[in-house]
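seq:
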Amino acid sequence: MKYFALLLLAAAGCGTTAGARWDEVQGGGTMWVLLSMQGTPALAGAEVTLTFDVGRLYGQAVNRYSAQYERTEGEFRIDTVAATKKFLDEPPGAMAQEERYLKLLDDVDGWRLAGSWLELRRGETTVLVFRRRNPPESS
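struct:
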């Protein structure tokens, strides 16, 4: 747990939105994997993913989800997030994590890219932290 907190602190100082290009966030089919929500590590064995496309985001927690988003120089707004409705609480707590994640995602209004880490923010507060998972290389 201490190691995870140190990684988050180290990542926080690695870059700023001003120096980052949005195409690094959405480019090349990059998938992001949730590391933490409001400083609490994501549930082991219940991976949450996020991918950005032009004007649209999507991913999977327990259920698949998607939303439209708008990004301008000063704003980042995510429209209402829609998700499928299956119930599978494996590992235990996966459904609660998904519910909390989707609620936090719905409230995001900013972003910050720090190396291979993506922070989604509400005001000045980081609410979701992801790590980059590059697409598999073609052979």
